[in-house]
UniProtKB/TrEMBL annotation:
Coiled coil: none annotated. It comes from the Bacteria. This is YchJ family protein. Residues 33-127 form the YchJ-like middle NTF2-like domain. It holds the Pfam family YchJ_M-like. InterPro entries: NTF2-like_dom_sf, YchJ-like_M.
Length: 132
């Protein structure tokens, strides 16, 4: 799936345009905050940008490869909570709920994700899936 045009709404459902939201983060791999990285990773799942997902995944937990399900359509992201993860922090936590549709119907994924900032880059470390 191709990235949206710069003047289209961003798939992360921030309400911003792709060109001023996740577009620059997908292009560079650099986000100013853990929340912005989380939004860009959701967008990467929505547009099947495996390269962005892997390069923003911490090497200590990153898989060798990532196969995305072609049947899954990521539709909406809600940020539930975040702790730290700002431009002057080294660590951050972002809790989110992602809404999707797949062959079985509609579903959600709620996760509390950990991030670290190394060499001025935010990286996804891991997450704990939460129920409702």
């Amino acid at each position: 799936m191709a990235n949206p045009a710069s003047d289209q709404r961003c798939p992360c459902t921030s309400g911003d345009l792709f060109g001023s939201c996740c577009g620059p983060v997908l292009a560079s791999g650099s986000a100013p905050t853990a929340v912005r990285l989380m939004r860009s990773r959701f967008t990467a799942f929505a547009v099947a940008d495996v390269d962005h997902l892997l390069r923003t995944w911490h090497p200590s937990t990153r898989p060798d490869r990532l196969d995305l399900d072609d049947e899954t359509r990521w539709q909406r992201l809600d940020i539930i909570d975040h702790v730290a993860g700002g431009p002057f922090d080294d660590r951050g936590v972002v809790e989110f709920e992602a809404f999707y549709r797949d062959a079985a119907g509609r579903g959600t994924l709620r996760e509390r994700s950990s991030f670290v900032r190394e060499d001025r880059l935010w990286l996804y470390v891991d997450g704990v899936v939460r129920s409702g």
